Amino acid sequence: MTLTDKTDLMKNEKWHWKSALFLIWLCSLGFYFHQYMFRLIPSLFVPHIHDGNMLNPIQLNMVLFVFWFAYVAFQSPASVIVDKLSFEFLLLIMSLLHISGILLLAISTHFYMVAMALFILGIASSFSLVFSLYIAKNIFTQKMYSLALGIIFAIGGTGAILSSFIFTLLFSQYGPSTALKLLTFIPVILVVVILFFMMIKKRRFLLKSNAVVSSLPSYPTVNNDQSKIIKKHANLMKSYAYVFFHALPMVSFYASWLFPFMEDKLGAHNLYTETSVATVFIGYIIGSPLAGWLTKMFYHYREFILFIISLLGMVISIFVIYATLSNMLTALLLLMLGMISSFTVMAISITADIAPKKTHSLSMSISSQCINLGGAVALLFIAGVFYWFDIASFYPNLKEFHVILFIIPVSYAVAMLIALSMAIYEHQFVTLLTDFQHYKTNYNENKTNTDKFITQKPFIEKKKKNHPN
Fold it and tell me: Left, alpha or beta for 356 (phi > 0: left; psi -120 to 50: alpha)?
């Protein structure tokens, strides 16, 4: 084989590798969408078991805790496993584990079966986001990676909105157990697609020459020199902290206490109250690709943008919680808070860029853990406030909510200060000031040239008339 043939073979191999990896990434998006639905469906399904006197109230809360414990606890091991196993094989195993958890939940008859089913679902869910992020980093360039992040998070938000609607529709027609079994349709299709892909891949590589490796090769997106530079980057830990505080309101308020708060603020049986949670998630879906696009367009000013976004979150959350507003304005502000929450995409893109190459997947899993860990810690804090202020009612009144929810604007304020520190470290304010001065200078020069042209235009036209060509 000549050198030219070997070069062409390697180029074709890299193109096939990219195409195969993109197909696996699409499958991982389908898996992420479905597992995001099952972050909310257990909270809809388990109460029906409680109505059948299978679980007491303590067990009811315990089994829901088991899911989130497994989800958070297995994200770090997931990052190590993603580095060791092939993408398609790991996605196949996790899809089968996800299906088995759903089926076990559908046939559960007592507490331990429900707990085991949710534990399995939590493990499968812990791999989904890390898996999608890791593959995307191997496919896209640094700037395009931010758009991929926006797509991933938008798909998750869509799954959150559709989960309640789809499960309620199937539940009303077939009952909870059959509804869960029908919901295995999507992961079963994914398993078939992955198996088909693995068969084609195996046959293709068996037919190729020994010059090409028989598994998906690794084409790193970060070179070794860059890896050495970013290994000691000071903003890495700050990016974790920013995600922790900026994502805190999503879990602790918008997905947990927003509905009862809106019942007190706007009144029960109010259209704006009933759609308040959906409004936030719609904003999250709109904001995720928008955040990805802004990351691509203003790549070198991401930390400054995060500073502005968290400042907006702090101000808007204060208005939503403490101000008396019209229903329409409240809904608009909730939509904006959903969009603001989606800017974790931009923070994660910073983590992805500055994380060391050898521990990249671990860094992404830590960032993913921080998204949910902040909300979990805030829920514990809220429970402590309940105890400290002796709030006996499960649904507090508006004044009690004002005490409980002060943590929301405070979390945005802390995130704002972290983003400010990151921006100062990157010298972004100096860069912005310099760019503004250059823009102002260019604007004045262009304005001066335009004024000169306008002043001289009559003389130019008169000269053309006196001296025609």
Answer: beta
